[in-house]
Amino acid sequence: MHTEIIPAVNDRGYRSFTESAGRNNIPRVLAAFQAHLNRTGKVCPRPWCWRRFYNLFNPGYEPPWLSSWWATSTRDKRDILLKQMEYLAWQTNHFHEAHQFLMKIDEGDWLFNK
Questions:
Q1: Is residue 102 in a domain?
Q2: 58 lies in a domain?
Q3: CB within 8 A of 59, min separation 6: which ones?
Q4: β partners of residue 3
Q5: For residue 85, what are the domain limits?
Q6: What are 39-89's pLDDT values in tens digits?
Q7: How many domains does one find in the chain?
């Protein structure tokens, strides 16, 4: 990731390239995230990790929790995750942080298509 020194907008004293690009690159990042899910077979984070994601970023759409986890189809789980990412992208300032969180979690924290 490219980092450039520009007038600070926060206490870090710098903004990353993705932050300075702002909302201009959101459609590209969303498309790349969806392509990543398709390529890897990832559906969504497992319940314990998804709950952490939900608590950290409050992505607007509540995922199925343990009580309904097994009754919810993988397609519905994935649709909810993508809706959460779209909500974060267009309704909050937490999209890039949420994207980084999901890209860094362990493989064992993901549900995969069979």
A1: yes
A2: yes
A3: 53, 84, 85, 87, 88, 92, 98
A4: 16
A5: 25-112
A6: 999 999 999 999 999 999 999 988 887 778 889 999 999 999 999 999 999
A7: 1
Residue carrying the six token digits 């004293």: 13
The H-or-E segment that residue 15 falls in is strand 15-16
Residue 80 tokens read as 């909810």
Has residue 91 been placed in a domain? Answer: yes
pLDDT at 20 over 50: no
Give the dihedral of Cα atoms 43, 109, 39, 60; nearest 10 deg: 50
Q: Which two tokens stand for residue 58?
A: 């409050």
Sign of CA dihedral 94, 107, 69, 33: positive
Residue type, 111: L
CB atoms within 10 A of CB 84: 23
Cα distance between residue 16 and residue 6, in whole Å: 9
The CA distance from 15 to 7, in Å, is 8
